[in-house]
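cron nightly-structures :: item 1 of 1
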Amino acid sequence: MNFVGTKKKAVNSKKTQTVVPLKGTHSPRGKAMTMAEIGQKALSRGIQPGQMDKAELIHSIQRSEGNAPCFGTSNSQCPYTDCCFMTDCLTMKC
Protein backbone atom coordinates (compact mmCIF):
# COMPACT_ATOMS: atom_id res chain seq x y z
CA MET A 1 0.00 0.00 0.00
CA ASN A 2 1.39 3.41 -0.94
CA PHE A 3 0.91 6.12 1.71
CA VAL A 4 2.75 8.88 -0.15
CA GLY A 5 0.81 11.65 -1.95
CA THR A 6 -0.04 10.81 -5.52
CA LYS A 7 1.31 12.70 -8.51
CA LYS A 8 -1.21 14.37 -10.75
CA LYS A 9 -0.71 16.54 -13.83
CA ALA A 10 -2.45 19.91 -13.81
CA VAL A 11 -4.68 20.65 -16.77
CA ASN A 12 -2.96 22.76 -19.45
CA SER A 13 0.36 22.48 -17.67
CA LYS A 14 3.44 20.31 -17.88
CA LYS A 15 4.14 20.67 -14.16
CA THR A 16 3.34 17.85 -11.78
CA GLN A 17 1.98 18.57 -8.33
CA THR A 18 1.64 16.37 -5.26
CA VAL A 19 -1.96 15.94 -4.19
CA VAL A 20 -2.27 15.56 -0.42
CA PRO A 21 -5.89 14.74 0.42
CA LEU A 22 -5.66 15.26 4.20
CA LYS A 23 -6.23 18.93 4.92
CA GLY A 24 -8.18 19.93 8.01
CA THR A 25 -9.98 17.52 10.27
CA HIS A 26 -12.82 16.25 8.11
CA SER A 27 -12.63 13.48 5.58
CA PRO A 28 -11.72 15.21 2.32
CA ARG A 29 -14.72 13.85 0.42
CA GLY A 30 -17.30 13.58 3.21
CA LYS A 31 -16.91 9.79 2.88
CA ALA A 32 -15.11 7.19 4.92
CA MET A 33 -11.34 7.58 4.60
CA THR A 34 -9.45 4.95 2.65
CA MET A 35 -6.64 2.95 4.27
CA ALA A 36 -4.17 4.91 2.13
CA GLU A 37 -5.52 8.19 3.51
CA ILE A 38 -5.46 6.86 7.06
CA GLY A 39 -1.91 5.58 6.54
CA GLN A 40 -0.84 8.97 5.20
CA LYS A 41 -2.37 10.70 8.22
CA ALA A 42 -0.57 8.24 10.53
CA LEU A 43 2.77 8.90 8.83
CA SER A 44 2.22 12.65 9.16
CA ARG A 45 1.82 12.10 12.93
CA GLY A 46 5.00 9.99 13.11
CA ILE A 47 3.16 6.66 13.38
CA GLN A 48 4.44 3.70 11.36
CA PRO A 49 1.34 1.79 10.14
CA GLY A 50 3.14 -1.54 9.74
CA GLN A 51 0.64 -4.38 10.00
CA MET A 52 -1.96 -2.51 12.11
CA ASP A 53 -5.56 -3.07 11.13
CA LYS A 54 -7.80 -0.07 10.47
CA ALA A 55 -9.15 0.30 14.02
CA GLU A 56 -5.69 -0.06 15.62
CA LEU A 57 -4.24 2.52 13.28
CA ILE A 58 -7.04 5.00 13.88
CA HIS A 59 -6.78 4.48 17.65
CA SER A 60 -3.05 5.25 17.42
CA ILE A 61 -3.81 8.44 15.48
CA GLN A 62 -6.49 9.46 17.98
CA ARG A 63 -4.07 8.95 20.92
CA SER A 64 -1.33 10.92 19.14
CA GLU A 65 -3.78 13.81 18.76
CA GLY A 66 -4.58 13.73 22.49
CA ASN A 67 -8.03 12.23 21.94
CA ALA A 68 -9.62 9.13 23.41
CA PRO A 69 -9.19 6.08 21.14
CA CYS A 70 -12.94 5.82 20.58
CA PHE A 71 -13.16 4.77 16.91
CA GLY A 72 -15.79 2.05 16.48
CA THR A 73 -17.25 2.37 19.98
CA SER A 74 -19.94 4.99 19.35
CA ASN A 75 -23.09 2.85 18.93
CA SER A 76 -24.02 5.26 16.10
CA GLN A 77 -23.92 8.29 18.42
CA CYS A 78 -20.93 10.60 18.64
CA PRO A 79 -20.52 14.15 19.93
CA TYR A 80 -17.25 14.70 18.00
CA THR A 81 -18.71 16.10 14.79
CA ASP A 82 -15.34 17.42 13.56
CA CYS A 83 -13.65 13.99 13.61
CA CYS A 84 -12.27 12.89 10.24
CA PHE A 85 -13.13 9.25 11.08
CA MET A 86 -16.77 9.91 12.01
CA THR A 87 -18.38 8.73 8.75
CA ASP A 88 -16.69 5.32 8.98
CA CYS A 89 -17.04 5.08 12.75
CA LEU A 90 -20.79 5.55 12.78
CA THR A 91 -21.31 2.73 10.27
CA MET A 92 -19.32 0.19 12.30
CA LYS A 93 -21.08 -2.45 14.36
CA CYS A 94 -19.97 -2.27 17.99
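cron nightly-structures :: done
The beta strands are 6-9, 16-19.
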